Amino acid sequence: FQLEIEDLDYNYFLPLFFDGLSETTFPCEFFARQGIHDMLEHGGNKILPVIPQLIIPIKNALNLRNRRVLITTLKTLQHLVASADMVGEALVPYYPQILPILNMYRHMNDNQNQNEQQQQRKQTNKGIVMK
What we know:
The N and C termini lie far apart (55 Å). Helix 1 runs parallel beside helix 3 and helix 2 (28-43) runs parallel beside helix 4. The protein has eight helices and no strands. The chain has a domain at 5-94. It has helices spanning 10-19, 28-43, 51-63, 67-83, 87-91, 95-105, 108-122, 126-130. Mean pLDDT is 85; it is low at 123-131. The chain is an all-alpha fold.
C-alpha cells in the first residue's frame, strides 16, 4: 500500500477483505486474513461503523461449511470483537443471522469425542488395538 493503514477507507476495504474469508486458495486466503488482521489492529474507532457491512461476508463464509474456513472465520470474529470497544455489543442485533449457522457446529467436537469413546469400547480404534 502507498497509504498508511489508518488512512484507508474502512467502509470499502474492510468488507472487501471479509469477503475473502470464503477463499480457500493461496494467495487470496492469505491476503484476506492479513488485510483483516492489519485493519483490525490499526482501525480503532473506524471499525464499529462498518460492522453491518461485515455480517453478510461472515455469514457467507460460515455457510460454506468448510472446516478451515469456519475456523478462520471464528478466529477473525474473536479478533474483531477484541479490536475496538463496543464491537461485541454491536454484533448482538446480528446474532439471529450468525448463531443458527454456528449452532450446527456446536457439537462437532462432542461428536468426535463420542466417536473416539465408542471406538475405544469396541476396540475399533487402530491406535488402541495396536497398543
